[in-house]
Amino acid sequence: MAIEPQHTIVVINAVEWSAAYPQSHPLRNVGEWFARYLRRVDGVTVEIMSAAEVKPDAIAAPGISGIILSGSPRDAWAPDPINAKLVDLIQQCHRQSRPFLGVCYGHQLMGVALGARVGREPAGVELGNVPISLTEAGRRDPLFEGISDEFSALQSHQDAVLSLPDGAELLATGQHTRIQGFRWGEWLRGVQFHPEHDPDILRFIWEPRRTTWRERCAFDIDARLREMQPTPCGPKILENFVRFCKRRNA
Q1: Residue 174 scores a pLDDT above 50
Q2: Which pTM does this prediction carry?
Q3: Which residue range is the domain that position 194 belongs to?
């Protein structure tokens, strides 16, 4: 019987924690937010690296089947050497037909890499459970295979992709932030929402921010965080991405 080849998914952790988040806290492990779901698919290993560790040949190694770029407190649209390095990586994924999934900041940086308009979301901060609608293209896309046309996803952002790049397809949309998911070409995809998050992670992230952000938001942060619910579609979307990577590299 043939042995299935091992597929490696690289998760790039773009988060830099402040001193407000204890180093020993288990929820600081951004890579594991993703890996716990990615490993559900047989034949998959997960490699986690920080954005600072990314090298030009980071995706060239044999056996790397796909790349995921995490969220981040960075502004994807701002001049920043880390942003520039990751933009190069996204463009390299396109040139090498390497599956790429950008999440939140990663989604926004993918927009930057492709010439989209990216900046502050005019409607303000989006946080908590948000209804998402798939477009016709989204219903056909393997990233959303088995996902309802309408589903709930967890959000935490103040920036957004404000216009689609030329040649891109809108996959998912929302009332607050219109561009919730898009694809460019066959291999690059981005989602504004967080398929890797659960309510505990979002509460951990927002606990040190509550006092500062209460006056900046047009909603009750405490109630929004308290009332959050798990989103089963998130893990399914990550598993779909892994299966897509495996098919591409079979």
Answers
A1: yes
A2: 0.96
A3: 7-248
